[in-house]
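Hi Y.,

Following your request, here is the sequence exactly as I used it, all 416 residues.
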Amino acid sequence: MKKWSKKVFSSSIVFILLIMLTSLAIPSLAMAQESERDFVISSDYTHIVIGKGTAVELDVKVTNLGKANEDVALSISGPTDWGARIERRWNKYEVRAVRLSSEEGANSVELRFKAKPPQETAKGDYLFTLEGATTDGRIQRSLDITITYKEEAVSEETEIIKLTSKNPSLEQPAGKEFEFEIELKNGFDEERIFDLAAQVPYRWAAYVTPRWEKEKRITATKVNANGTETIRLVLTPPFDVEKGDYSATLEARGGDDAGSIDLKATVTGTYMLKMGSEAEVLGTGETRNIKATAGKDKLVTIYLWNEGSAAISDIAFFSSKPKDWEVTFEPDKMPSLNPVTKEFKPDKVEVTIRPKSKAIPGDYTVTLTASGKEAREQLGLRVTVVTPMTWGWVGIGIVVVVIAALVGIFVRLGRR
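Below is the corresponding structure, written out as tokens. Let me know if you'd prefer a different format.
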């Protein structure tokens, strides 16, 4: 009995210890998982002073610091009559949620906080809180912005270093460079050398050249007292860039003083539909020269891919063929075809060709066409038609009969 009691007591102790260890391990595991997730909302300016009739526009950045992609919902708390909102920097859409990649260099989104005081606003400090939360609600972050409002207008100081461009927004198809012509003004009463630095999207390249010396690249330029100098900023997107709007900034710094200009590069999609035979794509299989039997199906595999930068939509297949031939495709349509840089493999299409049953042996041309909304491509096939073996035996039989008949005639004539 005592031994049994000791066993029960020992088992109870072990069970309690296991429960305690489990209760300690689970929170530790949860904390470890949470530590791999984080994001931050930031701005260079968190307390500003404005005067009567002045609207507020502040750049805000949301950055993913974790190891997983995150969807973050955004909101603002503060005075409701200021019309506070968060927008995209360029096209002014209101933003209420963002998707943040975990990949370094592509893990942040630049937004703009906007607010405007109503006409009868009293002077004082006004607090706005920008709040963000992951979709599961586990991670919440915020940024406080204080706006001090004065009833009198706040005088604006003249910019000593000023960068301007007649065309701060450019549009180019993927694969093309963006060239911004920028005027740099030196407001000092002395000659100055300004260091030039560009902030560009992830994997983009940038360089600056003098206006008339496009082959010369510079990192600084000298501007006369109260003078101006025109320079060129060239942006080169990566080869696999997606279509969309991209922002860049050029800064000119002279000592402790600096000026900058925000620029916009809009990449439009390129579409390049390609078709190839099995031999051209895989190195083995059918070429563009094929053999088919009259009246019988011939299966041919072709491949389709997109060498552009944007998806090609609504692709349908057609054929140009001799009269009474049949050509079918499987599939006969594609809703979209992504760039090969994303898919890393071409799409396969099975083509069935049936020459008419009474086709004369010889070479024929069949043209296959893939046509989408944005691009189209053709592939020509040379089809060599042969007759079925049954007709060959029939022909041999006819020849044998004719020869036999001739032999019989000669035999009869010889007897006479």
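The longest strand covers residues 257-268.

Thanks again,
Q.
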